[in-house]
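Translate structure to sequence.
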């Protein structure tokens, strides 16, 4: 039986109660099923790095990659309360605040239906493993609620934190705030202020940690987005703010399709989240059948993305199958007397980019934008010469091919390996892996220099003599060399290291404002 307090809450705030209950039910079901999600490992690794104190840079993927551009709020919270707790709390907060907002300003069955739909579409971030986008949704809803309630003290900090949580979430929030500024003169100044608070963190991070690469956006996805927005404009045509927001969204969607940026297909996330709730709130009763049909499409659309999570064929889910691979790589490193880089063809869940990446250096990682920027040839049909050139350029010594559940992005590479090129020799086969040695593999460091240890954001090298050579790890202006050495950017974005004497050299990553502005020197006194 329900308690009196529950009955009172349900009667006074039905949308709030229904949205929170729906979100809680979906979160509980998530914890029971634990669906597979290829996006989960990206946020999981960043949380693990945060637990080790790495916030700026990591050498575990791609030879080096920056961290802040994908959000710092999620990893910070995940390192303290856990990644699952962070995602669940974000969902519950977003659903409760959205429900409270529509209870206060709209009410009735429409508000309840919209709040429930919002909880359902919002759960996609949890079930899809989008561990940075989920907190940005909660913060974005809080910022909008603060704007609607004229609580500027709440709207501006929430908008700022949203900017630090996810660049995608912040960009979408800024678009909504711009719509409010255009449509509602009474809130224009506040909306512009909140929009600036949202965009400043994005601009600062983009300046200090520029994101390279682009995210794909297919014509079919654009068409579905535009149809959904056209339905919103047509059905909610009497509500100026909604129409303006949808119109701006149309322009943003077309722009994301035409211009290759890191946003790309991610622009659809706001439609996944808000089209169904918007239609439920502001639909024309004379078009009820159309509204119900569009709400159904808009709700099912984002969940189709999660279909992989219910696949019974997924074999490589966690780190367990990687044990023999990691053991073999470590043995090969001991025999070689130096650290080796391994090309691990991605599995369907991209689990190789999580815990295994902390134990061995993998040549790639689960960051679509950067992978396409650095390794675009792997997304096309390969010939033996092109693949060999890629292996040499990235100083890959071993190639590990999963025997189960390879990702689609590994298809061309696997087909190339199946032709048995002369420079690949199979040296180990387990129940899960075929491991190949690369003949004539390039060393991670040039002559006279050996890579002894690679931490999360540190490298230890040993110089046999004075050297001026390339170290095949990605350069960052925040890199600092001790022991009288000097580091600058070398060919292909690798590190160029100069030292005038033999000995051990330690490289580390440290943030400075001068480096963020591109004015700092990475050369220690006496180096180079």
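Result:
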């Amino acid at each position: 039986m329900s308690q009196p307090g529950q009955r009172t809450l349900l009667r006074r705030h039905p949308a709030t109660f229904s949205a929170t209950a729906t979100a809680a039910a979906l979160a509980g079901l998530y914890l029971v099923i634990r669906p597979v999600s290829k996006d989960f490992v990206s946020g999981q690794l960043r949380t693990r790095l945060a637990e080790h104190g790495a916030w700026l840079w990591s050498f575990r993927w791609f030879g080096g990659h920056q961290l802040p551009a994908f959000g710092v709020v999620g990893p910070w919270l995940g390192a303290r309360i856990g990644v699952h707790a962070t995602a669940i709390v974000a969902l519950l907060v977003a659903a409760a605040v959205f429900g409270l907002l529509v209870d206060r300003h709209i009410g009735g069955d429409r508000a309840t239906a919209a709040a429930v739909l919002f909880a359902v579409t919002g759960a996609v971030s949890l079930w899809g493993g989008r561990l940075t986008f989920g907190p940005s949704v909660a913060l974005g809803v809080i910022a909008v609620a603060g704007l609607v309630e004229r609580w500027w003290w709440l709207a501006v900090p929430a908008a700022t934190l949203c900017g630090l949580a996810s660049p995608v979430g912040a960009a979408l929030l800024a678009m909504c705030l711009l719509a409010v500024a255009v449509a509602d003169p009474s809130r224009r100044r506040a909306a512009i202020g909140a929009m600036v608070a949202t965009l400043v963190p994005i601009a600062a991070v983009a300046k200090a940690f520029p994101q390279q690469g682009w995210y794909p956006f297919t014509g079919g996805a654009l068409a579905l987005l535009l149809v959904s927005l056209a339905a919103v404009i047509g059905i909610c045509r009497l509500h100026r703010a909604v129409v303006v927001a949808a119109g701006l969204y149309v322009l943003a969607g077309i722009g994301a399709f035409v211009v290759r940026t890191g946003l790309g297909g991610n622009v659809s996330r706001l439609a996944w989240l808000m089209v169904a709730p918007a239609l439920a709130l502001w639909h024309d009763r004379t078009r009820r059948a159309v509204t119900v049909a569009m709400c159904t499409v808009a709700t099912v659309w984002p969940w189709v993305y999660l279909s992989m999570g219910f696949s019974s064929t997924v074999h490589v889910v966690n780190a367990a199958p990687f044990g023999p691979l990691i053991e073999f790589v470590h043995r090969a490193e001991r025999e070689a007397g130096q650290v080796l880089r391994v090309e691990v063809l991605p599995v369907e869940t991209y689990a190789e980019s999580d815990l295994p990446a902390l134990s061995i250096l993998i040549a790639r990682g689960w960051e679509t934008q950067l992978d396409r920027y650095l390794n675009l040839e792997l997304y096309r049909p390969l010939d033996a010469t092109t693949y060999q050139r890629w292996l040499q350029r990235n100083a890959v010594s071993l190639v590990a091919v999963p025997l189960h559940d390879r990702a689609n992005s590994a298809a061309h590479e696997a087909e190339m390996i199946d032709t048995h090129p002369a420079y690949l020799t199979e040296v180990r086969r387990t129940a899960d892996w075929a491991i190949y040695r690369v003949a004539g593999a390039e060393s991670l460091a040039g002559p006279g220099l050996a890579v002894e240890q690679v931490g999360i954001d540190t490298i230890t090298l040993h110089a046999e003599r004075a050297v001026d050579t390339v170290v095949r790890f990605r350069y960052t202006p925040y890199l600092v060399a001790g022991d009288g050495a000097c580091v600058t950017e070398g060919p292909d974005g690798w590190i160029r290291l100069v030292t005038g004497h033999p000995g051990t050299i330690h490289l580390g990553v440290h943030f400075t404002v001068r480096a963020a502005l591109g004015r700092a020197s990475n050369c220690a006194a006496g180096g180079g």
